[in-house]
Amino acid sequence: MTVPLTPATEIDFSEWVRPGDLVAWTQGAGEPVALVERLLEQRHTIGPFRALLGTSYSGLVTAEHADVISFLGFGVVGAGKSLAAAGSMDIVPVNLSEVPRLLRSGRIAVDVLILQVSDRGDGAGYSLGAVNGYVHEALAHARTVLVEVNTTAPWTYSRTVIDKSAVTMAFESTTPLVEVRERPPTDIDTVIARQIADLVPDGATLQLGIGGVPAAVSAFLTDRRHLGLHSGVIGDSVLALLRQGVIDNSCKPVDRGVSVTGLLTGSHDLYDFAHQNRAVRVEPVTYTHDPVVLQSLPSLVAVNSALEVDLMGQIGSEVVGTSFVGIIGGQADFARGALASEGGRSIIGLPSRVGTTSRPRIVPLLRSGIVSTPRSDADVIVTEFGTAYLRGASVRERVAQMIAIAHPDDREALDREAQQLIAGY
After folding, report:
1. Cα dist. 228→23, 30, 332, 364 in Å?
2. Tens-digit pLDDT profile for residues 185-218
């Protein structure tokens, strides 16, 4: 007999959340919108508590909620931008691959866990739907586990299934999943993406990060054959390659015939494509970012973006000046995985300047001093002015190549700065 679920609108969070608790919930398209909305509305009744915020695109969480809630995050994406700008979120700098261990060990101890799930209705466990990620790793320590069974969420295949016996209470929701539309690529994004695509051979396995440049690369891969997909996140940009059979995963020694991702971040078209599709698996961070798995994928081409890259090849993806505006995420994980892959490439694509301003993104040294990916893990850097191949290059060779791909109006100043930087080498 099926037990009717409680409507999400009827939850009283004061029964489940105590003052001082740390509350965490699934991120991105997997955000349990109906339950989070009530949690925020009822915050004054609960009293001061903490929230572990992942990637939130729903628009629900704002700086005004910091009057009661202390926010903790791993970087600045989505709602995190306004929270960080207001000084309302504390940041834990960490590679994404490390987050599951922090949660499992209780180093970051989650008291109340809220998951958006999908139920196929066949008596099996819950699917995490569009987003797997990391928060379910807190199951071992959480005092309370609440699930939002969303009838609009896709049921996706994965090695992670939430046992219904581990759930404290389940609530029903029909709230449509959050859609995250990729912004149209700029002319500069397109120039960079075309150069990056030239570095992707037939049979390669792709990892595409977030940002305009990685998303634009797909449009230039339609003539490739037998590509694979193993990524932390995928958006709508890969749908055409999947439907056309350009991505068929036939060359992967593991997960042959299957596209692997940790998050679906796109439109309902993407979510519908993944629904009960055995050729798509939404896996946990412990698999998508596992260095052993990444090393086993021949010709792994990791494509990511950055805020700044300096003449030494140090990559900054988190901070501009003194402001947090980005995230480490899985950039370093995939950079090292691609370097370990036979025939792999780790590619960073970024415009030479910030938008229409004259502020350079190729800089002498990272202005913030905060390095997201070290120079020892730098491989290929691409701007609209060319490609720098840094793997195995000396300091002087790196400096020369990086100046060559900077904006022409920035090169003279960079050359002057470079003479002082390398004087001691």
Report:
1. 36, 24, 20, 36
2. 999 999 999 999 999 999 999 999 877 888 899 9
pLDDT tens per residue, range 330-362 = 999 999 999 999 999 999 999 999 988 889 999
Binned at pLDDT 50, 70 and 90, residue 233 comes out as very high
Q: Which has the minimum average pLDDT: 172-176, 226-230, 339-343, 421-425?
A: 421-425
Please give the pLDDT value at position 425. 64
- CB proximity list for 355: less than 8 A, separation 6 or greater: none
Q: Measuring CA to CA, which residue among 227, 235, 131, 242 is closest to residue 184?
A: 235
- The percentage of residues in the chain with a pLDDT greater than 70, rounded to a whole number, is 99
Q: Which of 47, 138, 96, 87 is nearest to 322 (CA)?
A: 87
pLDDT tens across 275-326, in order? Answer: 999 999 999 999 999 999 999 999 999 999 999 999 999 999 998 877 888 8
The residues with which 320 forms a beta bridge, in sequence order, are 323
CA angle in degrees (0–180, nearest 5) for 72-77-83: 50
Give ∠ CA 212-215-217 in degrees, rounded to 5. 110
